[in-house]
Automatic annotation (TrEMBL):
Keyword presence, Transmembrane helix: yes
Source domain of life: Bacteria
Entry keywords, A to Z: Membrane, Transmembrane, Transmembrane helix
InterPro entries: MFS_trans_sf (IPR036259)
Coiled coil: none
Name used for this protein in its record: Major facilitator superfamily (MFS) profile domain-containing protein
């Protein structure tokens, strides 16, 4: 959406604000889910920290390779994935509604 409306400054600021809010809300939600069960809490947090550390270390290299070699392919894959997830979410949302 931000790419499509890149010349419209209001949409850009709105999208940036939504992105910032979502970035601020995700880590507390993940930590809440990880620490929900006290017996598994330490193992879950350790695994989460391991995954975050590995992703932080490998992301710059992987991102550079993806940008340099697979830009159009990844964009097409992203569009198809977003469409498929939207269709699936719509189906799951409305599948149990009684028909009148």
């Amino acid at each position: 959406m931000l790419f499509y409306f890149q010349k419209n400054l209001i949409v850009f600021y709105g999208g940036s604000i939504l992105f910032g809010v979502s970035i601020g809300l995700v880590p507390p939600a993940i930590l809440t889910l990880l620490t929900r069960e006290a017996s598994e809490s330490k193992k879950n947090i350790s695994m989460y920290n391991l995954i975050i550390a590995f992703a932080s270390a490998s992301a710059p290299f992987v991102g550079e390779v993806m940008y340099k070699d697979f830009t159009k392919t990844l964009f097409g894959f992203w569009i198809c994935s977003a469409f498929a997830m939207s269709v699936l979410a719509t189906y799951l949302l409305f599948k149990d509604k009684p028909k009148k």
